[in-house]
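User: I'm putting together a small comparison set for a docking exercise, and I want a reference complex before I start. The sequence is below, and the ligand is magnesium ion. Could you produce the 3D structure with the ligand included, as structure tokens?
Assistant: Of course. I'll restate your input first, then give the structure tokens for the complex.
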Amino acid sequence: MIRSKQIQKPQKVLVVDDQEINRDVLGVTLEENYEVIYACDGVEALEKIRENADSLSLVMLDIFMPNMDGFEVLEKMNADDELKSIPVIVLTAEKSAELKALQLGAADFITKPFDLHEVILARAGRIIELSEGRRLISSAERDKLTTLYTRSFFLEYASSLFTYHPDMHLDAIVLDIEQFHSVNALNGRDFGNSVLALIGGEIRAFLSETDGIACRYGADRFDIYCVHQDDYQALLDRLQNKVDDLSPNVRVRLRMGVKEWVEGADPVTMFDHAHAACGMARGDYKRPLMIYDENMRRMELKNQRLLNDLRAAVEEKQFTVFYQPKYNIQCDPPRLSSAEALIRWKHPELGMISPGEFVPLFEGNGLIRLVDNFVWREAAAQIAEWKKKFGVSLPVSVNISRADVVDTTLVDRLKKLVLDNGLDYREVKLEVTESAYTDNAGQLLDVVGRLRTIGFEIEMDDFGSGYSSLNTLSSMPVDVLKMDMKFVRNLENSDTDRRLVKLILDLARYLGIPVVTEGVETDGQLKILREAGCEFVQGYYFSRPLPAAEFEDLIIKEMNTERNAK
Ligand code: C2E
Ligand code: MG
Ligand code: MG
């Protein structure tokens, strides 16, 4: 509801305080610009507010008063459609009262003993200006689904807290739902909405116990500005548990980024940092909570740098493809069976940068497609070249990212690549990480299904690192399993890991799916795997990833072995 008022008339302000001295101090100040009326407790205030409802521009409201306190006045105003659009500035000496008043709909507050004359006038003026015509303190400022504040309103509150109450040390928290679009796609929008409403409700419950404000931002992001908590994991757990209770069959994961208060940090920057921290928790199911710190700042700067430098890197050919062999270890001696293409970035100033650093970064914004395209082209050309040079067909697998899967031209592009290089589909294998199967299930299964129909082989990468369970494996469109390195690391010392590896190998054999074990570095690991029936191994034991020219030595060696065996 927009309150229309005649600008020419002096605006009317109600001052409510049980202390006469306070009424006088404010009155003297405000009478310079406004018509001022007074009340000395909550009951009288409500009467005056009702009487003057259509002409009142502002209420300056004390909190602690006899008969009816300021909170109750706020509650009653809030419950009344006509009164709730009248802005209220709360007068208080109690810090703890300030945020509660804000939650009850107060527009601002002034601390006692009163601020400077000019400050009071400026703030009263600003609130009136905001409420009249341009912005409203009303239900329109709340998100309908969660009843938390809207983002713009929230930011305005946050910055006024920052400006006028620099002594109030508030932390910024950003909460996000992993893959919310898939939650919606898989379970329906109603389910998605109930998740959001539930989180909103729990955040409100949390804020009623502590001081702070919150909003929903975009579809599935929540921003919270609150007094420092010692244990943010506890807050995340509390919200996660709430969501888990909603439906035992659907796993909805939350992640959280926090930027703690430091001197002079304004809310916009703080929320940027909290958001960056939250982004770094993305997809890392083991660390869903990130606190923004000095390390993260450095990482952010570096990430920014890498993002800026990507295009030049492609143009200036700073990327090269390395090849790491996979060996069949059931043969004696083991036989070179294929290779994996792995990207390398030689940055002119930063030196060699590991894909572990930039691949997740470029996956976040889809730029990885540029890199992947390059790798696929290189690898396809390389297979063709080795075929010509050595007369052997050595299949090479390339990595496919989530961002590639959502690209509708993917299938055609891969098909063209194979045909243009005169290859067989079996010669270019495609590695898709396990978590992609769980994240965007529907679309992924469709795309992978089409690729297999054409004749591509799909290897499930990093198997065991995520959440896909062994028993769903039989229904997955997969030709080869690549067992995650974590299983191998302790193979020689851990009984549990050894049993787990055996179990995976047995199951895969039962399903007729060959397994490549990654990260094999020692003789001992190799022996255990061979005895357990693992067919293929990729790891430093045989070779690190190598530039194409060096990889050729392995091909030549393999050809010699073959010749000698004959
Ligand atoms: P991945 O696909 O699981 O690749 C295997 C990684 O394990 C490679 O790391 C490889 O160098 C490393 N590795 C192999 N054997 C051993 C070993 O015995 N011990 C240890 N400690 N590590 C071993 P790299 O090359 O750093 O790549 C890391 C990840 O980056 C890859 O994991 C893959 O997810 C991604 N990646 C690499 N190249 C590309 C690419 O062209 N496109 C995309 N989308 N992702 C890529
Ligand atoms: Mg891989
Ligand atoms: Mg892998």
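The radius of gyration is 32 Å. The chain has three domains: 12-138, 151-292, 329-337+367-565.
User: Thanks, that's exactly what I needed.
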